[in-house]
Design goal:
Order of helices and strands: HEEEHEHHEHEEHH
Number of strands: 7
CATH superfamily: Class II aldolase/adducin N-terminal domain
Mean pLDDT: 93
GO biological process, one term: pentose catabolic process
Distance between the termini: 38 Å
Low-confidence stretches: 215-222
Protein name: Fuculose phosphate aldolase
Strand content: 15-25%
Pfam family, one: Aldolase_II
Radius of gyration: 17 Å
Oligomer: single chain
Organism: Priestia filamentosa
CATH topology: L-fuculose-1-phosphate Aldolase
Strand order of the largest sheet: 3-2-1-4-7-6-5
Keywords: Lyase, Metal-binding
């Protein structure tokens, strides 16, 4: 499996679908149980090449490459250490999602099929400077509770079992934020799916296997 090609495809997808911009953001993939590839520092998502990735040992944090990795590497390492089921991590700042991260507006999951599934678990962390140990620790601490972590006044981290599923989760999030904002602008009152129906969908519809997180902590979007 060519993981570098998958990451290059993901970078182009994020830019093409306005889910990332310029050098903002970073993406990684678990290549085996204890190794990951992450974008190098200063790389452009739309123009990633085979040389734009850095290999790390997940347990020790050892850099196997000569290039400088993304400054958010500690955050990615922490997530993979915390969640053995996670094989892909996307960090970006899409417009509408970032707008919500800069506000106190709730991100609603009870809208339609994809939001019920992909936005079931959302956690929030306070603002810390990009690349800081404080940010890495805050995100890692929430990784057991959610598959989407909103970083206040910064952007979002999305975790999933594959890059394709992570893309879908991120795009669903951005679409929901856009929809909620447009409804507010237009004075349209959104009709939400009842919680009993949401639980029935997640547990009984067999849409997709429900992702495992710590459901003893209620996510903020419910």
């Amino acid at each position: 499996m060519n993981y570098k090609q998958q990451l290059m495809n993901t970078g182009k997808y994020l830019i093409s679908n306005q889910l990332a911009w310029g050098t903002s953001g970073n993406i990684s993939v678990r290549t085996d149980p204890d190794e990951m590839l992450i974008t190098a520092s200063g790389t452009y998502m739309a123009n990633l090449s085979e040389d734009d990735f850095v290999k790390f040992n997940i347990s020790t944090g050892q850099n196997y490459s000569e290039r400088k990795a993304s400054k958010e590497t500690p955050m990615h390492l922490g997530i993979y250490q915390k969640r053995e089921d996670i094989n892909a991590v996307l960090h970006s700042s899409p417009f509408y999602t970032t707008l919500f991260s800069c506000s106190n507006e709730a991100i609603i999951s009870k809208l339609f099929v994809e939001t019920m599934y992909y936005l079931e678990d959302i956690a929030y962390v306070d603002y810390f400077h990009p690349g800081s140990q404080e940010l890495a620790e805050a995100v890692t601490a929430q990784a057991s509770n959610a598959n989407i972590i909103i970083m206040k006044n910064h952007g979002v981290v999305v975790l999933d079992e594959s890059l394709l599923e992570a893309q879908m989760r991120l795009q669903t999030l951005e679409m929901a934020c856009h929809m909620i904002l447009k409804a507010k602008e237009s004075g349209i009152k959104l009709s939400l799916i009842p919680q009993k129906t949401v639980q029935s969908f997640l547990n009984e519809s067999f849409y997709k296997p429900r992702k495992t997180v710590n459901h003893s902590i209620k996510p903020s979007n419910k």
